[in-house]
Amino acid sequence: MKSIIPAQAIDVPHEMTTTGFELPGYRIHQSLGVVRGVVVRSRSVFGTIGAGFQTILGGNISLFTELAERTRLQAFDTMLHQAHLAGANAVIGVRYDANEIMSGVTEVLCYGTAVQVGPAAHAE
Fold this sequence. Notes:
Layout: E1 26-42, H1 45-57, H2 62-85, E2 90-102, E3 105-119
Antiparallel strand pairs: 1-3, 2-3
């Protein structure tokens, strides 16, 4: 599956993201605003049929789980790229949201606040 973002080195390392509003060991120097990654996906006919068979057996519907994970990762990576373009080296307050746009078509949004951080000063 191809991404709409060109392949490149990690823009903002995953360890420089948090769902919290502080990054342990770092001090926020500047807030650069909200950044987001949006992916809109539809289910394929074949995937829907395969998932239909999995529902008969019960349990985890792995085809949809895999699609959801790939979609969230793409939205997350797009958000990190946008943070890098904004001049950030970290993203705080990371959240996900998903909405069904129409039957079988879902929008996944990953968003957070792009920030510039530096090492926290330690009191001696």
